[in-house]
Specification:
The protein has 5 helices and 7 strands, in the order αββαβαβααβββ. The longest helix has 38 residues.
């Protein structure tokens, strides 16, 4: 004969099981409703993709220590800061190619951000009779993995820095000065040689660029 307490326990467990089954069915119905609602609210058109534009990149050549002008067609956003990041990402992608004239290991998101700030007029230059510098200062924030993996050497590091400065100025001519950060912080050098504590003038990179047909689009 089954004890009374076992019968009570059985019926309690049965009621709990039924209640849980009903709850699970209801939750499933609600999840299905949310899914259908999400489909109704989903956009029916594809997101807008930036149109491809012709851009001028100043690509370093280790064979003769020069910067070569290369025309590239790539999608460029309208926002100047996002535009600068896209340009530099393409430049470093070229350096990561197997046939690169300035080989640097390819790193994802090597350029984390590009910030544009106004260049303040220097009062001391005005008082001395020199024309104050105008334009914008570009702050380029590189990733630590890119800097750590960059080949060491004064020439190769300098070419990288100057090619970045020249590429920014060639496409965003309002940029007159460039500073560098690594992972959002100041860093003494790129890979032991090129000084990252100083401000670079873009004129240092665009004095005598040489033209190249590599990467040109018809």
């Amino acid at each position: 004969m089954i004890p009374r307490y076992q019968k009570v326990l059985f019926f309690v467990l049965l009621l709990v099981s039924v209640a849980m089954a009903v709850l699970l069915v209801r939750l499933r119905e609600k999840a299905h409703e949310r899914l259908l609602k999400g489909e109704d609210l989903a956009p029916t058109t594809a997101p807008v993709v930036a149109p491809a534009e012709s851009a001028m990149l100043l690509v370093a050549n280790d064979l003769d220590g020069t910067l070569l002008q290369e025309q590239e067609s790539l999608p460029l956003p309208q926002d100047p800061e996002a535009r600068g990041r896209a340009l530099l990402s393409k430049l470093l992608e070229i350096y990561g190619a197997p046939d690169s004239t300035h080989p640097i290991p390819l790193v994802a998101r090597a350029v984390q951000q590009v910030f544009l700030l106004p260049v303040p007029e220097a009062a001391e230059k005005t008082r001395s009779g020199e024309a104050p510098r105008g334009g914008q200062l570009a702050v380029v924030n590189l990733s630590g993995s890119f800097a750590d993996g960059h080949p060491a050497g004064i020439e190769t590091e300098t070419l990288t820095v100057l090619s970045i400065c020249g590429t920014l100025h060639a496409n965003l001519p309002q940029i007159s000065e460039v500073r560098f950060l690594v992972d959002g912080k100041p860093r003494a050098t790129l890979a032991g040689h090129a000084d990252l504590t100083r401000t670079y003038l873009t004129t240092e990179a665009v004095s005598e660029p040489q033209a190249s047909t590599a990467g040109a689009t018809p």
